[in-house]
Structure formats: C-alpha cells, structure tokens
Amino acid sequence: MYIEMTKSRDNLAVIDELLLYxxxxxxxxxxxxxxxxxxxxxxxxxxxxxxxxxxxxxxxxGKLKSGTEIKxxxxxxxxxxxILMTKGAKTELKLGFRKPTVTMIVGANGGGKTTxxxxxxxxxxxxxxxxxx
Length: 133
Known about the structure:
133 residues, mainly alpha, Four Helix Bundle (Hemerythrin (Met), subunit A), 2 domains, elongated
C-alpha cells in the first residue's frame, strides 16, 4: 500500500513547495495549483472543490495570511482529513438478476477508476459476492 501511494504522495508534495513561496498577491494562482495537485493525486473533483473552497474562504476571511501560516497550523491537512473522514450516504448497489453480472467503468486518466473499482470489489466481497477481474 505504501509503495502504491508514491505517486499521490509526490503530487501532494508540490503543495508544500507552493506554500513555501506563496504570498498574498499570488493567492488565486497558488490556490489553483493546490487544486490541481489534489486532482492529480486522485482526490476527485467533489472532495477537491470542498477542500479548496474551504481554504479559499479561510484566506479571504483573514484567518490564514501566508503559506507559512497554513503549514504551521496544519489547516490544509486538518481540513482535508475532516472532509475525507465524513461518511457519505449509504447507497444500495443493485446488480442484474442474471449471473454473472458484468460492470464496465469508464473515465479519464487519473479520475480514480482503479480506486473506485477496488472499493467496489471490497464491498461486493464483504457482501458475499464472488469477484473476478
């Protein structure tokens, strides 16, 4: 698992560099680059938007005034973890009545297909289904 996360970890490391050199004049540019770093790290668009909007709100409200403050307060990490730890609504998965059921997943590169399929396979197996690739 640790090795598999290398790409995401490397992409998120860019955020540290951005915060190091960020000043108030570059706010929009830096926030957009932070957003891009989350997206290429497989966070997905909905979660990325929540994290970035919350960061942007804190900056414009004057709660965070520099990249150094953001790093020191761990605001970005706390915010990200808070969003990721909230449970979503439980949805019922309805599979076809014929066996075997074939599911096809389509999406853009880096859109989280592999991650989503892993979660789906885990869920189906835990519900007693036979999962094959």
